[in-house]
């Protein structure tokens, strides 16, 4: 009890300072939308896919409304009534055939308005391992402008936590006046004060037969269910007609009479596109990514997986020396494949929610025991992990369906492994080009170069019982030279795959509904 009282006193002391921060961060915005119509076109296939025809479907049918500064608009309607579509349109995130007028302080949507607007998607895109406080603080650090100090941004996030009643769970891991709107199948059925909604429907002949929750009653009406024993289609038609005759014209008149607030702080010429600098965004995202990924990367399951693989590898290649050259080549190729497949599919499963693949390493006891060879091999494997993660992100962004992305990744990775130079040394000419785009081939080549030099020898049946490692048929085919070229090729892939993923996500857009 004493702790709660202390919290309340601390909050009261901060109220003037918090109010000043909110005033500094918020701009008054009057939202008006009139006769909003949204259409989509889709193609229907004929019999056996021989003929197709394009049809047009109207999702929003002339929706009108307003939200003044300090007000909150709540939309009530059954599933499929286009609530999300309307919200997406009002948030400036809906393209396509959108007609009607949507204005913010009398102006259309712009970059400056985007800076003053937040949009919460229907599906959660939160980091599951971050706490409530961390999530909101990172958002404040990214979204609030540089006119705020870091302390002010953090205070702003904490005040939001307090206002939402999340103080008790702020360290837990995630996993005003109201206006109500009611819609059905893209047609508005009511717009106005929530206190008047039941009186309005009673006035047009739709009142609950028995006392019931108003929200349940309104949803029943939107679905065409009425206590008057009417046909559902008739109920909907009557409600739409009543809205058009009783509310539509009055609402449009109110929209036209609204005086738009001052445009101070919302001028495109005065406001840059981004709230923070590139370096600030990078720093915040890096810290957030590390906090999130550490829970997954260092979980007992992941560590156990790596340790088991390392233990089995140590047993299978126990005390292997250069005389077992073929066995050592197999181990090198196994590691290049394992550390390629592992991060690739993890990136596919996390894309596009997460865009950063974690780094992993293990402690192998194999091949040359010198520190130089060990750390060089480790660097090559980490390099390969980053490249494979980039490829996984690109596949996940290009092929959004997870099942299709998994199949695509399997086919690509299998092709890269087969062309990597270990299983097949004499690749047919018509398909030999695959090895030049296979990161497995370059990883394998760099791993061989990290362990062997052309002048190294091994015991063989040749003259003198000693042969050059560089002359071993399988190694000679891959080659121990041009190591720099292999590193450059992986570097190009590292950047290229992530660039492809970025462009694919830009093409998709923030939201599609």
UniProtKB/TrEMBL annotation:
Signal peptide: none annotated. It is a multi-pass membrane protein. SUPFAM superfamilies: P-loop containing nucleoside triphosphate hydrolases. Pfam families: ABC2_membrane (PF01061), ABC_tran (PF00005). GO terms for cellular component: plasma membrane. GO terms for molecular function: ABC-type transporter activity; ATP binding; ATP hydrolysis activity. Keywords: Membrane, Transmembrane, Transmembrane helix, Transport. The chain crosses the membrane at residues 298-318, 330-349, 374-400, 412-434, 484-505. Coiled coil: none annotated. Residues 31-284 form the ABC transporter domain. It comes from the Eukaryota. It is found in: Membrane. This is ABC transporter domain-containing protein. It comes from Populus deltoides. The lineage of its organism: Eukaryota, Viridiplantae, Streptophyta, Embryophyta, Tracheophyta.
